[in-house]
Design a protein that fits this description.
Elements lengths: L9 E5 L22 H4 L10 E9 L7 E9 L4 H15 L2 E3 L7 E7 L7 E11 L2 E4 L2 E6 L2 E7 L10 H15 L2
């Protein structure tokens, strides 16, 4: 995504380092849900992308804190993009609530919720973590366009702070459709 594709008030920084995806690991029932938190949050995905690119998008529009998100493009061979989305749906259905490892009261929650219909297929993943009385959300919109997944993943916002997520996913899709991967 480029700055000119963003709504007013947003900036973009292209990433130079990216975490790898989860690869061909297919966590079965024997793998504890706590080991799958990065996968469940759509921060990592199954499959092995043939190419990846990422950027950090932010806005200081809010009165108390900046809004920050990552955009990641992943291109897969064959049916890999469709498989990564199907795996994510399956894993969230298996592990909708996960206790934080080593902490008694902390927990993560994951859900596939209605979101915008974009690309060939899309889904919105709502994620949150609760520690005592504090709750943070980091939601994602995944859009499949052929063999490519476009993911816009917001980072640790206060509940209800995801109002930019759909606008940025739409802008990222327009940018992708205009310029390609």
């Amino acid at each position: 995504m480029t700055t000119d594709a963003l709504p007013p008030g947003f900036t973009v920084d292209v990433a130079t380092v990216m975490a790898p995806d989860a690869g061909r690991q297919r966590p079965g029932p024997e793998v504890p849900c706590a080991d799958m938190v990065p996968l469940l949050s759509a921060n990592r995905l199954t499959g092995t992308p043939s190419a990846m690119a990422a950027a950090t998008v932010s806005s200081a529009e809010g009165p108390d804190y900046p809004w920050v998100a990552n955009e990641v493009l992943r291109t897969y061979a064959g049916d890999g993009a469709r498989g990564a989305m199907a795996d994510l749906r399956t894993f969230i259905a298996r592990c909708p609530t996960v206790a934080s490892p080593g902490r008694d009261a902390d927990s993560y929650r994951f859900a596939v919720v209605p979101g915008p219909r974009l690309g060939d297929e899309s889904m919105q993943v709502d994620s949150s973590t609760t520690s005592g009385s504090i709750t943070l959300e980091w939601d994602s919109i995944l859009v499949r366009i052929g063999t490519t997944l476009l993911v816009v993943h917001e980072q640790g916002n206060e509940p209800g702070g995801g109002d930019h997520l759909t606008r940025l996913a739409e802008a990222a899709l327009r940018s992708y459709q205009t310029t390609g991967p």
